[in-house]
Write a structure and sequence with these properties.
- It contains 8 helices and no strands.
- The protein has a single domain, classed as Four Helix Bundle (Hemerythrin (Met), subunit A) (Up-down Bundle).
- By secondary structure, it is an all-alpha fold.
- Bound molecules: fe (ii) ion (2 copies).
- One fe (ii) ion binds next to α2, α3 and α5.
Length: 207
């Protein structure tokens, strides 16, 4: 039976498993796992190549979801704008490098010293970027944004990022949410941004 829209809305906004900060942090922890291998000079070359490929793929998905579900609405909010603009520039730089390196790594069986160096530098940039989000942005979001909106944002992130059963090995407790997003229709960008805009316009301290 199709779910009623306002019922579905409540199932999202009242479910703290959808909290976008926790979902982004979960993604970050996987990226950091890859970064640690990429930065390790003694790591086995074959393992490094495998991690390099999964790191590029994971960042690509994370970036797509983060830009649409998080940066797009916060960019419009005075209290977040300057931070978000800096992060967007960092993403633009990393996204283009990810694209180039993804095609370079697609057809090789072992990494040259140059490629290894490129991956190490990229990993260090992403590590710094993730650290800033966790130290600067997330605490401010927890303080300034109510859970109901953080949950709606997380739902949108999960849908765009296409969370699947594969991701559950890192977070088995999200089983119900993963099946929920599969049965849900995505919120269009325009509708999503108008909802977030309505919320932020009502928050005097953030305008
Ligand atoms: Fe980011
Ligand atoms: Fe991030």
């Amino acid at each position: 039976m199709p779910r009623n829209i306002s019922q579905e809305q409540d199932q999202i906004s009242l479910n703290n498993h959808f909290n976008i900060i926790d979902l982004l942090t979960l993604d970050h922890s996987y990226l950091v796992e890859c970064i640690n291998v990429l930065k390790n000079k003694n790591a086995d070359k074959k393992i490094k190549l495998k991690y390099a490929k999964t790191f590029l793929d994971a960042f690509k998905k994370h970036s797509a979801g983060e830009k649409k579900a998080l940066y797009a609405p916060l960019e419009e909010v005075t209290a977040f704008r300057s931070t978000i603009l800096e992060y967007e520039i960092e993403h633009a730089i990393v996204d283009s490098k990810v694209k180039i390196l993804t095609s370079k790594l697609a057809s090789i069986r072992s990494m040259s010293e140059e490629l290894e160096a490129e991956m190490t530098v990229l990993a260090a940039i992403v590590e710094h970027h993730i650290g800033e989000e966790e130290k600067v942005l997330f605490p401010k979001m927890r303080q300034d944004i109510e859970n109901k909106l953080l949950n709606e944002m997380g739902f949108q992130f999960m849908v765009i990022r296409q969370f699947s059963e594969k991701d559950l090995q890192h977070k088995p407790e999200l089983k119900e949410e993963v099946s929920f997003i599969k049965n849900s229709s995505p919120i269009s960008s325009a509708k999503y941004l108008s909802r977030t805009h309505k919320y932020f316009s009502s928050q005097q301290s953030l305008r």
